[in-house]
Amino acid sequence: MFTGIIESVGEIKQISASGTNKIFWIASGISGGLQIDQSVSHDGVCLTVEEINANTHRVTAIEETLKKTNLQNWKKGGAINLERSMLMNGRLDGHIVQGHADTTAVCTHKENMEGSWEYQFEISRKFSHLIIEKGSISLNGVSLTIFSVKKKSFKVAIIPYTFEHTNIKNVLPGDNVNIEFDLIGKYIARFHSLKS
Questions:
Q1: Which residue among 57, 59, 67, 132 has its CA within the 20 to 30 Å range from the CA of 124?
Q2: Do 120 and 167 have their domain in common?
Q3: Nearest 5°: phi and psi at 152?
Q4: pTM here?
Q5: Residue at 96 is within a domain
Q6: Cα separations in angstroms, 31 against 51, 78, 84, 183
Q7: Is residue 89 one of the residues assigned to a domain?
Q8: Cα separation of 54 and 59, whole Å?
Q9: How far is residue 26 from each of residues 14, 50, 102, 178, 185, measured CA to CA in Å?
């Protein structure tokens, strides 16, 4: 479990393929303190640390993960939002994030609001029931609040701290981001679908 509060932004140092899998080496300020077999959110995708070498760590994304996320588009030198799993004795500053991305969304608009930034994203219509006004969502692992909800789109506002300390600042119109919808909302939607 994660909170959607990003600890560090890592840099992709190396990418290789192994069958249908992709292997990533990522350098970051937290890599040296990680442990083998630890779960770490990478742009909102929970991946297992397999190897650590000084300030870099290695993870593998399997075919299923590559299909549902934007990891197949990652490039060497890219910036990745990182968060270690939450401690159960601490504050939950964002919202409950599993690191299991549901889909991707496309950025359709980015605007500097002279003190914050607004982004608009478009999603597949089949996920529309999972976005609500003032609800929580994880974008590339960042816990954000939704507003201006339409049938296939929504907006989020980014404060200066989040803009400077995550890779959201690099997102441009046309880019895909990893999306994880609110866990509680997904359970409620599933419950109601089984009643009908």
A1: 59
A2: yes
A3: -125, 10
A4: 0.90
A5: no
A6: 10, 16, 10, 28
A7: no
A8: 15
A9: 7, 12, 23, 18, 32
Rounded Cα distance, 54 and 27, in Å: 9
Is 143 within 8 Å of 136 (Cβ atoms)? yes
Nearest to 183 by CA among 105, 92, 98, 86: 98
- In our burial notation (b when 16+ CB lie closer than 10 A, e otherwise), range 1-20 reads ebbbbbbbbbebbeeeeeee
Judge if 14 and 67 occupy the same domain.
yes
Type of residue found at 148: S
Domain containing residue 70: 8-84
Q: What is the CA radius of gyration of the chain?
A: 16
> How many domains does one find in the chain?
2
Averaged pLDDT in 10-residue chunks for the chain of 196 residues: 95 96 97 96 97 96 95 97 89 86 97 96 95 96 96 96 96 98 90 84
Q: Report the alpha-carbon distance of residue 83 to residue 123 in Å, rounded.
A: 24
